[in-house]
Hints:
Keywords: Membrane, Sugar transport, Symport, Transmembrane, Transmembrane helix, Transport. InterPro entries: MFS_dom, MFS_STP/MST-like_plant, MFS_sugar_transport-like, MFS_trans_sf, STP/PLT_plant, Sugar/inositol_transpt, Sugar_transporter_CS. The chain is mainly α. The protein has 23 helices and two strands.
Amino acid sequence: xxxGAFVSEGGSGGRDYEGGVTVFVVITCMVAAMGGLLFGYxxxxxxxxxxxxxFLSKFFPQLEKQRVKAKNETAYCKFDDQKLQLFTSSLYLxxxxxxxVAAVVTRKYGRKVSMFTGGLAFLTGALxxxxxxxxxxxxxxxxxxxxxxxxANQSTPVYLSxxxxxxxxxxxxxxxxxxxxxxxxxxxxxxxGTSNMAKNGWRVxxxxxxxxxxxxxxxxxxxxxxxxxxxxxxKYEEAKQMLKKVRGIENVDHxxxxxxDACEAAKKVEHPWKNIRQSKYRPALVFCSAIPFFQxxxxxxxIMFYAPVLFKTLGFGDDAALMSAVIxxxxxxxxxxxxxxxxxxxxxxxxxxxxxxxxxxxxxxxxSFIGLKFGTTGTGTLTPATADWILVFICVYVAxxxxxxxxxxxxxxxxxxxxxxxxxxxxxxxSVNMFFTFLIGQFFLTMLCHMKFGLFYFFAxxxxxxxxxxxxxxxxxxxxxxxxxGRVWKxxxxxxxYIPDDAVIGGHDEN
Length: 511
């Protein structure tokens, strides 16, 4: 079953392909996007668990004395503990390392093999965490979870971009972000429920991470590989048949030849890590590095990791802190659907810029409210009305991220790299993302202790810088076929200076 024929958009001069949006490709991409559940569930679960008294007293007993001391000194430092932060951040250090291995696996053995490997590693880590008896077991489990996240985040966005028609590539790729935000919400709800258990609630929360891992492992068995990946491994006839099935038509000669040309060009590239540094790939290298950096420096993972801890720091009760995290989780999911609707209608640039402005304003307001009530000493108290306003502005901030930098941080890097450097480009995207996620996870509570409410001004400043960066340097990529993306850079006022006149990108001469 297929829709009508479509024509590529975006003003790039891209080629037109026959075919439509088939039920097969939509279902396939939705199953693949379940890989985002792994990442999302962990993002949501760790913050809630680290706010549970039973978990803290068992693994981090030194915090109890610190929290008693903080009552008389500063609320900003209640949870400032390096071991506690290592529990959260160690996953992302492992994901960083795993992303480089995943790049090789993705290229040599296909995207679905990489998904299976990620799901299996995540499942093992979840079980170890659920039965942990000491901090060492916790960290080992987190490291294995990180391997799973590294493989899933490397392969899933690439899979989605390669399977989807250019017309709806943005929407289908954002299914990955929908899965992430859904995982965060589910985790927040589970934390809210398990926090009221008499004993071992934290074990249930950590152990249920096995559920999305099992879905990922099972789903990878049934997923077909992408035509691009099949061609990459020399399976020409299978690739053509898969492309026919994906597009829902028999005549795919035009698109198939373009993908094949790109694949042949990719095979001539013996060292993708070396070649991605070439001048003609400069835009891809810059955005695969800058976008994940800016995505993390927005401060979003302050909310995703430590929402319950942050709300408890600001004076919310235990249940109120967890419920506030649930509320931000609901906003996160709903706002992601806004992006799903708008990304292929209004374009990437519009969402980047609008989201950046919205996040900047909210960070300034949150920092100001906290500063007025707590000052630099952190010994004030929040009135219910002030607490409600802070929660509102945090929710508006989360919404801005969820329909802009959240999904686009995975979509744009996966769609701008030609096939010959795509695994390397995605590995850079994932590794930069994981490195700065690690830094935020490891040092946020310490930064909050020392920078106090000024930390929110710091993040606001970074949001302003990244919004300006997008305004001047990012061209619109909406509706541009992946194999024609090089034409976008040739038409850009700045990046055209880096594209040689005789450059061949994605198998096509860019003259």
